Every structure is written in C-alpha cells, then in structure tokens.
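Box S1 | Example of a co-folding query
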Amino acid sequence: MSEAPILKDTTRSSGREALQKNIQAAMALASAIRSTLGPKGLDKLLIDDEGRTLVTNDGVTVLETAKVEHPIAKMMINASSTQDRIAKDGTTSTVILAGEMLQNAWQLILQGIHPSTVARGYRKSEQYILQCMSEIKFEANENIKNSVVKTSLAGKGHSSMQETIARVSLDAVRMVAEQDSTVDLSKIKLISQTGGRVEDSKAFRGLMIPKKRISSNMMKTVKHGKIVLVDGGLEKSNVATDLKLNVTTVGVLESFRQEERNMLKRQVDKLIKNNVTVLACRESIDDDIKNYLAENGIQAFRRVARSDLNMLARVCNTNLINSIDALTTNDLGSFISSENTTIDGKDFWIIKGDGNAATIIAKASTADFVSEVERCFDDSIGVSIHLVEDGFVVCGGGASYVALARRLRRYAETIPGREQLAIEAYADAIEVIVRVLAENAGIDPITTLLDVVAKQTNNDSDYIGINLSTGRPSDMVELGVLEPQGIVKQAIIGATEVAISVLRIDDVLWAKQEMQMPDMPEDGM
Ligand code: ADP
Ligand code: MG
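Box S1 (continued) | Returned holo structure for magnesium ion
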C-alpha cells in the first residue's frame, strides 16, 4: 500500500513496532527515577542549560527539569505533574507504576494477547482495586496525621527537618480549615528566608506580606475595616512627562503641581467617603499624598506584588480595581485586622480577613537548600490538606499495594478468558512499589515481596509492609508509615490512565526528524 501524500514528510511506525518503541520509552523514563523512591532513595543532581545545579529527590522535579523529547515520555511526565497538582505526592510512584504496567503488558502482547484485551483487563483491575480501598483505609487521629505528613517527606532532608515541616504544614492547614471544610491551597502563603534553621520555620495566622506601611505616621494596627486593592497606583498623571509647559508667568508651574495634588486628594477623598481604612497598590503611591492619607486614618502599602493582591482579594472577599476613580461599593473588601510588625528584624504586614488564611515562614541555611525546603513544604501542605479534608489513610511501605494485589488476584480467578491474565499482570505491576523500596535500601526485592505477601496472608493484615531499617516485613501502623488514601488512589488512576493510553496507540507519525529514544533501562526488554 502506498503512503498517503500527506504523510510524505513523516516517519511512520505502526502496529507492534510502534507499541514496542512507546513502551520502551515509558520504561526508560520509569527506570530513570526508580532510584529516588522512598526514604532510602538517592538524590539526583540536575544541571540545566545554563549550568545551574539542583540536587533533589523529588520525582516530579527530576522529570520536569529533564529535557525529554519522546512524546510517550512526555505523557508520563504529564501524569506525574497531574499527580503533583492533584495529590501533591506520589509522583515518583505514579511513573514507576505506569512503567511496570506497560512492561507487564508487553510480556502479554508477546504471548499473542491483543493490546486492547490488556487495556480492558487493566481498566477492570483499576475499578476493582479502587473499590477495595474502602476495606484497607482507616481514619487517622491527630497523632497519626503527623506521621502521615512525615512519611510524605521520606528521603527528603533529615528527621528533625521532616518533623518541623510536617508540624508547621498541618498547623497552617488547620488554621485555614477552621472556617472552611475544604481548604483552598491558595490561602496558604509560603515565604522562604535564607539564614536560620529549618527547625525555626513557623506558621502564622493571616496573610503576611513582607512590607511596611508607607509612612510611620499611619496607624500601626487597624481593626475591622474596609480595604481597597488597586492594580495600579496613586500617582501624578504620567502625561506630565510628555507635556511641554510654556511657563510664562510666575506661579503657572506651581498651580499645575497644585492641580495634580488636588487630583490625588480627590481620589483619597473618595476612599474617605467610603470609610476605607486600608489601601494597597501594585504600583507607587505618591509621597505628596502620604500625610493626607495618614491624617485621614488610612494605612497604605505600595508596590504590593500582584500575587499578594490576588491573595488579599480572596482573604478580604473583594476584587482588584484599576484605579480609585473606578471604585464602587462592590469593590470594598473587609478585614478583621491589619497590623504592622517585625519578626526577626524583618517588617511584615499581617492581614486577617473574613476568610481564613495562613502564612508559613520557611527558613533554610543556604540558597541551594531553600528551594528543596520549599518543595518539601509544597508536598507536605498538599498532604496536610488531604488529611484535614478527608482524614482516611492507608499503610505505606508498599503495604497497601500488596493488600490490593492480593485481593485483585482472587478477583482475577473469577474473570474468564484472556482478561484474567491482564488482571494478574496488573496485580504483579502494582507490587513494584515494594520491590523498588527494597531495591533502593539494598535489600533483596524478590524475597522482600514474597515475605510481605506471606506475612499479610498469615496474619490476615493489610498493614504489613517493608520496614526499611530492618529489611523485615512489619506493621506500618506501628511504624507510623502511613499515606492519605487519596494519594494512593490518584497514583493508581494516573498510572492506569497512561498505561491504557499507550496501549491504545498503534500508529506513530513523526514529523521530519528521527524518533529519539531516551536511554534504555539497564535490564532492557
Ligand atoms: P513519591 O514521589 O511517589 O511520593 P517518595 O520518594 O516520596 O515517592 O516515596 C514514597 C514511598 O516511600 C511510599 O510508597 C511510602 O510508603 C514509602 N515510604 C516512606 N517512608 C517509608 C518508611 N519509613 N518505610 C518504608 N516505606 C516508606
Ligand atoms: Mg513522596
């Protein structure tokens, strides 16, 4: 059959060849981050185009920083980013799971099973184990929640750093949750500072902005008032810079300036009329108007970042306006208190609104370390939100995956035909987490897995996973190695989605350039 003219400039691979190449790409990517999984996972040193370096243990960071060309590898990275966005954790697991699902699928395809049969079996498996989650999850008390957040930081930093980050993140999330049952991530602000110990990081109530009011004549603290947020400034008109003034009489210039001041005054009068007591502008506020604002009891802040203004809008239940001239009563926000304070010698404006918010001041000793600390906070805030909103957890250390795989094997026996093989392959695939955790700790992966499975079955317990310090199967509840159920659920959903999408592709049309493969995993296929 001759190629359609439209495909002239494309490289085409189809059928089994296309699938094999795609699966290879997926496996190569999974093997690239395999060694970072778990508390004994190693770090990766990443170097970008400009030679900047970054040391991290975070799967999604490795993947998002890597320059990856292959579209299937990109699909895997997207799944990991989605996991990061939705669940904030489990990003490495998602990619490892997807890679393993595809590797096992390939073995079945080699035996003559059609990819769509495998895909159907995988979908059934996913649906079945998601139902089984309710059998293995349990509700966490407050102590357990702390362990859960700590587990999410496994392998990142030292133990007392994990302790602090977990405690501070949970504190911040609880502050926001006092009012809302669902916690809006955007109501938690993270300010990072270099110099100091991570252990001195702290959560504060309210939104904190590293700013000082523009004049010390203004009140330091204002309570229960109205706020206006301007996505612009309170300045003399810019037109003046382009204007040519013919100064013929003494006083013309002065009267021109006076008119400009009056214009600013008129804007402030509008604020006064609306009982506004706090003003925040993204751009500047003219020095000439400072005193007039102060005299009229208005606390003002200039050059406030747009991101902070947006947070202020959420916390004070209002919106940004372009200029004070456009102010209507709908644009007035309300707050409980607005105060100026100094913390460790730095100025902060702390505003508490009708909506709860929290600010975390994260400390780290060096600039390199600060970004790793920020990523840890990102993860643990995400995990804390899961916990505060849902509160159901499952065991880590691979325990929940083994518990689900055991159930899945029993289910497979009830499914006639070739799909049964796919369901068994899926059960094998999700056990990869135990194997990789063991591998990274230098423990024999196969024996470990078999021991964990045997102990779960003999003790009739879903809580047995791998204790990485002893290399023996142990009760993960006793060890405090626990994860929010939502993260495991999302990892299963994300990984299955990628695996099935890859299995559905049987034709790859590649524009002009040659297909570039990522490096092959060592064990090949
Ligand atoms: P991910 O990006 O998938 O979250 P991590 O590197 O954070 O990857 O590793 C998470 C895995 O490590 C989870 O399966 C978790 O249960 C496991 N884990 C964390 N701490 C321990 C521990 N102390 N013992 C055994 N497993 C652990
Ligand atoms: Mg993690």
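The first helix runs from residue 15 to 33. The mean pLDDT is 87.
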